[in-house]
Amino acid sequence: MQTATQTMKEVMQSKWNKRPLIISGPCSAETEEQVLETAQRLANTGKVDVLRAGIWKPRTKPGMFEGIGTKGLPWMANAKKLTGLPITVEVATAKHVQDALQFDVDMLWIGARTTVNPFSVQEVADALRGVDIPVLIKNPINADLELWSGGIERLQKVGIKQVGMIHRGFASYGNTEFRNAPMWHLPIEMKRRFPDMPLICDPSHICGNRTMLQSVAQKSIDLDFDGIMLESHIDPDNAWSDSKQQITPERFAEMLDVLVWRHENTDEKEFVSALAKLREQINHLDDELMTILGQRMKIADRIGEYKKNNNITILQTNRWNEILEKAYTKGEKLGLSKEFITKYYDAIHLESINHQNKIMNS
Ligand code: PEP
Ligand code: MN
Questions:
Q1: In this predicted structure, what is the pLDDT of residue 266?
Q2: Do 185 and 314 lie in a common domain?
Q3: 325/253 same-domain check
Q4: Residue 1 has what pLDDT?
Q5: Same domain membership, residue 235 and residue 320
């Protein structure tokens, strides 16, 4: 809570350093009443550090609610006055930055649809030259870590000292259980590239529904993320955007209570804790590998179908040699032995043939 002597800047600073950093609020600011009530109910839980709301909403299709615009900023400022919570909004243009700063927004974030565009990120960065507030940058919609890293570098180059990352999952074509596939190995790689930079998980946009929020949040904690940004709404079903994934402030507080927070051991247990974390990463990567292998076999099934209809043999030696040669070259660069690659691909090939066999003889 803000004390009389503490400036808002100091409050934001202490939140920035707090672990875990918890950010919540509606997908979109809709009305002043909705913003104020959400803020009050979040503050009442005593578990939220920063209030979020989308003011300008980048929507994939026209005709959807595109945000209330600048007139929502005084609502956020009032919510801060009411609760003492620092506030954060998404910015995508220089004008957004100017407007947000005019209303003393304490922290900004760059959304996934903006991170994909270096022109936009640079425009936002240029507008932030000489400004000293924390800026979070979401991963781009597509699984391109260079774009994400590039965005971070653009912010750092204009002098932003407090840059953080938000993992919100990656778009993929077709049906998956997630709205945006988490692809945990990607944020893990970003942690390797930027070891001292806060990494926040956004389970809302990864899941796109309420049922998986808890497990995704837990996974991120297990992977030593530094905080959570989660969308909350006083009337989730009737939210003007992302209604399927939002939950009430009280439900969020319950969720936070159930989460198992891993804490770092400092003394002789340091080794055990480090080991546990690495194993956790291995578990998630293995999980990822299984999912990808499953997908690969599904494609094999479809190829089998096609070959059956056209009376073509399953085994085509040229094609297989081509795959193997590519794998050896890539494997060598990644430090994988030829022996391992051979065994691994033989196993995959065999499984793939079995799948196709089943299809062709069904
Ligand atoms: C949001 O946080 O409401 C949002 C638009 O998210 P993203 O940029 O991850 O799609
Ligand atoms: Mn949203």
A1: 58
A2: no
A3: no
A4: 53
A5: no
With the most atoms of ligand 1 within 8 angstroms of its CB, the residue from 50, 65, 87, 113 to mutate is 113
- Residues around ion ligand 2, judged by CB within 5 A, are 27, 242
CA distances to 24, 165, 184, 185 from 143, rounded to whole Å, are: 25, 14, 11, 11
Q: For ligand 1, what atom is nearest to the CA of residue 168?
A: 9
Q: Quick check: 137 pLDDT over 80? A: yes
- Report the alpha-carbon distance of residue 132 to residue 144 in Å, rounded: 28
Q: What is the Rg, in whole angstroms, of the alpha carbon atoms belonging to the chain?
A: 23
Atom of ligand 1 nearest to the CA of 112: 8
State whether 15 and 55 are in the same domain.
Answer: yes
Q: Which residue has the tokens 């596939």?
A: 181
Distances, alpha carbon 275 to alpha carbons 49, 199, 228, 357, in Å:
30, 20, 24, 42
Give the CATH number for residue 198.
3.20.20.70
Report the C-alpha gap between 236 and 47 in whole angstroms: 19
Same domain, 230 and 311: no
Looking at the CA of 236, which ligand is closest? Answer: 2
| For the CA of 169, the nearest atom of ligand 1 | 9
pTM score: 0.79
pLDDT the model gives residue 147: 98
314 within some domain: yes
57-89 pLDDT, tens digit each: 998 889 999 999 999 999 999 999 999 999 999
Are 236 and 166 part of one and the same domain?
Answer: yes
* Structural domain that includes position 342: 269-360
Residue 282 has pLDDT above 60, yes or no: yes
- What DSSP string runs through 221-237? HHTT--EEEEEB-SSGG
Residue 325 sits in a domain whose CATH number is 1.20.59.10
Tell which phi-psi region holds residue 248, choosing left (phi > 0), alpha (psi between -120 and 50) or beta. Answer: beta
Same domain, yes or no, for 195 and 247?
Answer: yes
Residues 116 and 177 in one domain: yes
Report the domain count for the chain: 2
Residue pair 260/249 in contact by the 8 Å Cβ criterion = no
